[in-house]
Design a protein that fits this description.
- There is one protein chain.
- The chain has about 190 residues and is an alpha/beta fold.
- The chain has one domain: Dihydrofolate Reductase, subunit A, CATH 3.40.430.
- Helices cover about 30% and strands about 35% of the residues.
- The protein is built from five helices and ten strands.
- The mean pLDDT is about 90.
- This is Deaminase.
- It comes from Phytoactinopolyspora halotolerans.
- One of its GO terms (molecular function) is 5-amino-6-(5-phosphoribosylamino)uracil reductase activity.
- It holds the Pfam family RibD_C.
């Protein structure tokens, strides 16, 4: 049985996007990037909402061949492109090889099916998709960066009480903190 893991970089006040909809403040340094690379190696498939998919897909398709990309970025690009990706969207019409499109209305059924059939981790990205799949999420993994943005798109769904247990923590030289929480259910 697979494990659904919701993981993203977040601001210290809990946002994955600032009020302008940008995520530049979450850009990882090499140490944090290496941690994400290690976790991505354990990923059986990525599950993305449309917006995060669009933010991830185009840039990572080109990173491996860019001269200005760091080795840790190139490593992530190779791992990312070798991992199956599933995007849940009602507006995207076509996706490239290595990506599968599922309509948003089928997200819960498809994620439940994948969880039953896939061994390993299903890495979930995107707060809207995470909110729709909240009862299927086994772990929440946050890398909290030392900046507040004062609003934007929150990592956790608004108005949902979740019972969590800290399973792992790690502090980085930059002051960022990685937190992994097991989902014990709704409160």
């Amino acid at each position: 049985m697979g494990k659904v893991v919701y993981s993203m970089n977040v601001s210290a006040d809990g946002y994955i996007e600032d009020p302008d909809g940008t995520i530049g403040f979450t850009a990882p340094d090499d140490e944090i990037h290496q941690m994400w690379n290690e976790q991505t190696r354990q990923t059986s498939a990525f599950l993305f909402g449309r917006r995060l998919y669009e933010m991830m897909e185009e840039p990572w398709r080109t990173v491996a061949s860019r001269d200005d990309a760091s080795e840790v970025e190139k490593e992530f690009a190779r791992i990312y492109l070798d991992t199956p990706r599933i995007v849940f969207s009602d507006t995207i019409e076509a996706v490239p090889d290595g990506v599968r499109l599922v309509r948003s209305g089928d997200a819960v059924a498809e994620a439940a099916r994948l969880k039953e059939q896939v061994d390993g981790e299903l890495d979930l990205g995107g707060p809207g998709l995470a909110a729709s799949l909240i009862d299927l999420i086994d772990e929440f993994r946050l890398c909290v960066v030392p900046i507040t943005v004062g609003g934007g798109k929150p990592f956790f769904p608004v108005g949902k009480k979740l019972n969590l247990r800290l399973a792992e923590q790690r502090v980085f030289a930059s002051g960022a903190v990685y937190l992994c929480y097991e989902h014990l259910g709704r409160g």
